[in-house]
Amino acid sequence: MKLKTKLFFSYFILILLSGIALFWLIVEIRQLTTSLRTHVSKDVRSIIEISQQLQILEDLNTAYILVFIPGKTIRQKSAKLETTLNTFDKNWLQLKKTMQANFSNGVLDRVLNRIYLFVYSWFDLLRPKENLYENEIHDLNERVDVVWGKINRDIRQSLRYLRQNRAADARYLRDVRVKSELQSLRQLLATLNHQLGKRGIVKLNEMARIARKTQFVIIGTAILMVLLSIIVALFVSWRLTRPIPALKDAVNKVAIQNFDIRIKQKSNDEIGELAEAFEQMSRRLKETEAYKSAMLSQFTHEMKSPLGSIKQATHLLENSLGGKINTEQSRFLAIIKGNNENLQKMITNILHSASYEGGRIKLYYKPMDIVLLIKQVLIYLSPMIQEKRIEVRMQFSAAKVQCEMDEDKMKEVVQNLISNAVKFSDAGTTIDISVKEKFPLVILEIKDQGIGIPLKELPYVFERMYRAANAKKISVKGTGLGLYIVSQIVRAHGGKIDLESVEGQGTRFRLTIPRSKRIAEEGGWLT
Ligand SMILES: Nc1ncnc2c1ncn2[C@@H]1O[C@H](COP(=O)(O)OP(=O)(O)OP(=O)(O)O)[C@@H](O)[C@H]1O
Ligand SMILES: [Mg+2]
Question: Which atom of ligand 1 is the closest one to the Cα of 349?
Answer without folding.
Answer: 26
